[in-house]
Specification:
Protein name: Glutamine amidotransferase domain-containing protein
Keywords: Membrane, Transmembrane, Transmembrane helix
Number of strands: 37
CATH class of the largest domain: Alpha Beta
Radius of gyration: 43 Å
Shape: elongated
CATH architecture of the largest domain: 3-Layer(aba) Sandwich
Mean pLDDT: 86
Largest sheet: 8 strands, mixed
Number of helices: 12
Structural class: alpha/beta
Number of domains: 5
Strand order of the largest sheet: 16-15-17-18-24-23-22-20
CATH superfamily of the largest domain: Class I glutamine amidotransferase (GATase) domain
Distance between the termini: 59 Å
Low-confidence stretches: none
CATH topology of the largest domain: Rossmann fold
Amino acid sequence: MIDATRLNFEPFLGWPVFWLVVAVAVLAWGAYVVLRGRAALTRGLALTLLAAALSNPSLVEEEREPLPSVAALILDRSESMQFGDRASAANAAFIELKSKLEADTSLEVRILESDPHDDGTHLYGALEGLMADVPRDRIAGAIFVTDGQVHDLPTGADQGRAIGPVHGLVVGDPDRGDRRVRIVDAPNFGIVGETANLIVRVDDPDGGEVELSVSLNGGQAERVKVKAGEDTPLPIEIERRGENVIVVEVPPGREELTLANNRTASTLAGVRDRLRVLLVTGKPNQAGRVWRDLLKSDPSVDLVHFTILRPPYKTDYTPTDELALIAFPTEELFEDKLKDFDLIIFDQYERRGVITQSYLANMARYVTDGGALLIAAGEPFAGPGSLARSPLAAVLPASPTGRIRTGEFIPKLTEVGKRHAVTAPLDGQKWGGWMRYIEATAQAGDVLMSGPDDKPLFIVDRVDKGRVGMLMSDQIWLWARGHDGGGPFSELIRRTVHWMMKEPELEERRLSLVAEGDTAKMELRTLLDTAPPLQLETPEGRILEPIWRQKAPGIFTAEAPIDQLGLYRAEAGGLEAVALNGPANPKEYADLQSSTEIMAPFSKQTGGGVFRLNAAGTDIPDIRRVSARGAAAGNNWLGLRERGAYAVRSSTSQPLLPGILAAALLVILLILAWRREGQ
């Protein structure tokens, strides 16, 4: 305990009224002097005595218990501290600092380590939380042990002063460089089939030109050369609706602190403007109206539908202008604007000269270039006018045998169809029968449905960049009409069309990866009975090999623990998937250079300093206790303020100007003033 004496004032009228009375008294005395009163000094003494009496002065004797000043010691545990010798140097410095600070009994030391999973290094926020319950007159200061990359330092001129001085002890080699790539700007969405511009930047201590690798949705990577240190636009063609993952990579440079920031990614949502469909019906039939009604019922579909009412070989004296409102625009459709369509459907079409061989060759190229073709085969497909006897045969997955089988049969899913994303949800449903089947032999692709004698009924195939579907019957309209209980006509066609439009959720071979928190989850959809080996690449380039577990026929899942922010890549059986754990451009990897420049302005503002430690973290500056004002850092020393805070345990008060004494002295002074004025 410490005994202390102090002078105390507690005005009877409260401080606001007291100062008002003093102001009035001063004004009155000033007026008295201006009017040449003869007792100015005496009256001034009287007013001073009155003010002193009203202030109620007293002598207070206290027993005080000194309170220790509070200092904070915060260790940076962010991911950037794991490079080189930073972590070991920081640990050594932290242990020595802790020992020195705790040896000072007049100091309360509060210790905290930053969250290693944060997106960025948030030391100032940690300091504010640590000191939230400490009165500002007890704060001695704070010390950060870090690599200098602190992302939440305040920029205001007054912020941090009350909690300072804040010192920084910086570890790490300042001369080590690092090559990194980041996406400066990326759109959130774009129209499928159009291009979107990404703005990327490569930073390299050596400068010059750097070769980038850019891939979309795990596809073939393209090589692009960019100049280091400059923002560069990259045009990206959006290939599908939904999530499109763009991965940008740069090879290792001459100097590298980590490879985790040599790869980054962005997710772009593909939005389909409208689905443009060309439906060509070979002749009027029951299925034609069903196809038309289905496609017209979807407001996102732009449908162009032509029905060939009279082929050229047929003798019919009906005037042409009564058969069609316009001439069939074959050249415009199959030459000029063919690529404008997303999907072409042939319903029971017979090759009889309306669409020439050259146009059909154009259509084959349209498919290989990324177009979609769906054929609903009818009786003509088995004859000499079949599309299988045209240039279009090069992209068809099945060829007719020439036999047409009649009689009721019930379509059923094949084993592949039970696993394929298009038809797997239809498994287990009861379907009505069909009456006609165009016998065919599958030559490529996947047979999803079978007809009589397990012959291929519905086949889908990938042809280069495009996709083809073939239905070897003209009886699907029976399902739409509810014959014999009907069947999933609309659902089957919609799912088939979406597969042709490359919707990710309908891919029959698909690897997906989700990286969140401390777990990476992978799912594989395949048509095979077993899953190929899985490899998971971490942002640092380490390879993990999780084990697949079968969830359902053709569906496998796996999990792996992860502990880093950044881009993860999974690969299995030629399929690839990428996922971000955290933001696309983590702050921790934006700049890995050990630096004193970031903290220096803030530390100076709070009265502190920034010091660089050696590789071992052992050359810690001297720690001194300094006064509450003045500099708190110097050449190889840092200061923590001595606040001198205390708690009063007991006190006694003795009035210095009792009321009777004050009144007597006031009367005496007034009498002297009156006497002086009366002379």
